[in-house]
Amino acid sequence: MLRNVSYKNDKQEKEINELVGQPFSLLERLKQKGIGSGKLIITKANKEIESLLVLDQNINQCNIERRPKGIIIYFRVLLETYALIIPYYKLVIFKVDKLDYTIHIDHRFLKIQLKNKKDHGFMLNIIDEKANLNR
Question: What is the pTM of this model?
Answer without folding.
Answer: 0.91
